[in-house]
Amino acid sequence: MDKKLLEIIFDNLYNGIYIVDGKGITIGVNKTFEEMSGFTNQELVGRSLYDLVGSNNYFSGSASLLVLERKCPVTATYSTSTNRKFLVKGRPIFNPQGEIEYIINTIWDLTIVHYNQQIDADTVRSQLLNEEDLVTCSEKMSSVIDLALRVAGTDSTILLTGESGVGKSLLAKTIHLSSERKQKVLMKINCAAIPESLIESELFGYEGGSFTGADKGGKAGLLEMAKGGTVFLDEISELPLHLQSKLLGVIQDKEFYRVGGREAQQTDIRLIAATNKDLIKLVSEGQFREDLYYRLNVVPIVLPPLRERKEDIPTLIQHFTDKYNRKYNCYKKFSENLINQMVGMPWKGNIRELENVIERSIVTTQGDFISWEKVQIPGIETLIPNGVGLKEMLAEREQEILLQAEEQFRTTRRIAVALGISQASVARKLKVLKENNIDLFHKKHQ
Ligand SMILES: Nc1ncnc2c1ncn2[C@@H]1O[C@H](COP(=O)(O)OP(=O)(O)OP(=O)(O)O)[C@@H](O)[C@H]1O
Ligand SMILES: [Mg+2]
After folding, report:
1. What is the topology classification, in CATH, of domain 3-134?
2. Distances (CA, A) of 26 to 12, 71, 435
3. What's the distance, CA 418 to chain centroid?
């Protein structure tokens, strides 16, 4: 195809495109990305993502850096300093030697609030820190996200199922943000959290004087307040049976009555429901209405547990390490041995449990290098990890000593004296170490 035509296509794609080389240097972005992000091609070209990513910087995170680190395609969300939010699919292009030559990132805009000059920089930064970003490199999760993006634009009801902590709430938010309704509210309702006696009036609202203690003027319910937006009914299995039929009415007739009300309220909402229970089993036990189940299950999306997508574990460890390093202002890194150990764990609490372990390890360990002997992780019960040879353990300990010595003594000459080895071998060992930990060293020496 002619080059000019390719350029026209590049700039007129519906998605933003961000191209990076094998060292993390920006090669170029298309016009759509410029419009989405508020950054120009000119200001980004030639700049390393290692310099562009971080709190108080262009991007809060980067799919490309995770692709470079893990050498696999990655899907991730992140925010920008212009207060935009994106979902990115980064795909590595390998050269014949098997090294990454380019990374092609395709970008979807999840922004709802446009950057407001009145919000001061600190507020934006703290928002960025609190952002929960989604990251994955597994094929299973990528196809889940593809399905979610495909149906996001429709008004179909979606039922998200999966164990606790697999990311149902996060995916519900992502679906809302990629839908036409993203400028309107995402109303989250946890059916297990509202007391049974209140749930009807909370959901459907009430008319004045309908019960003692009610507001005289009546009150709109959550479904009414969500008009035009998305309603996320979390833990749907906990909805009492009589309200299940009322909800069925909402879905079928797109209207309902407030408690004590005579006037039908029209609804304009998109429903996403979630559960970690087996709804079919509850249906067979008479705990959940079968007709409601089929109404909710228009588009079923099943999120696989973490132990069925182990390839996500190293990428998530990297992602959460970056997140908590930023939060606590440190530069810690997990050893490859420890990461391998963690890949083998069952992770019953899924991603929530993994995230907690990473945060706790970063907060409680001393030194920048987190190895297996420093952390206490339920499931890694022995002090000597199984299947890790003495050689690897010694190598890990050596790396740690070198890092500490470098921090303390600074020059290779002083390190050599302190450790009783030659300056040449200090230099050689540090070089190898730095080559294996480019990311860590880069940040440290900025
Ligand atoms: N793919 C992911 N990448 C990054 N973080 C994730 C991912 N999936 C989940 N998380 C994080 O893990 C935690 C648990 O996710 P979430 O609350 O969405 O799970 P859930 O399935 O709704 O759990 P529950 O059934 O207990 O409500 C959250 O802090 C979320 O941000
Ligand atoms: Mg949840």
Report:
1. Beta-Lactamase (3.30.450)
2. 20, 17, 21
3. 43
Which residues of the chain, if any, have pLDDT below 50?
113-129, 382, 438-446
Fold of 310-444: Helicase, Ruva Protein; domain 3 (1.10.8)
Contact indicator for 344, 385 with CB cutoff of 8 Å: no
Quick one: CA torsion of 388, 393, 394, 398, rounded to 10 degrees?
150
Reported residue count of the chain is 446
Domain extent listing, the chain: 3-134, 143-303, 310-444
Q: In a 3-state reduction of DSSP, which class is residue 129?
A: helix
pLDDT score at 35 = 93
pTM of full prediction above 0.85: no
| Token reading at 179 | 């839908």
Cβ neighbors of 383 (< 8 A, separation 6 or more) are: 373
231 and 223 Cβ atoms separated by less than 8 Å: yes
143-303 folds as Rossmann fold (3.40.50)
Q: Which ligand is nearest to the CA of 359?
A: 1
Q: Which atom from ligand 1 is nearest to the alpha carbon of 172?
A: 18
For ligand 1, whether the C-beta of 353 sits within 6 Å is no
Rounded to the nearest 5 percent, the helix, strand and coil shares of the chain are: 45, 20, 35
Ligand 1 lined by 54 (C-beta under 6 Å)? no
Mutate to test the pocket of ligand 1, among 66, 89, 170, 279 (most ligand atoms within 8 A of CB): 170
Name which residue sits closest to atom 2 of ligand 1, judged by CA: 134
For residue 316, report the distance from its CA to the centre of ligand 1, in Å.
12
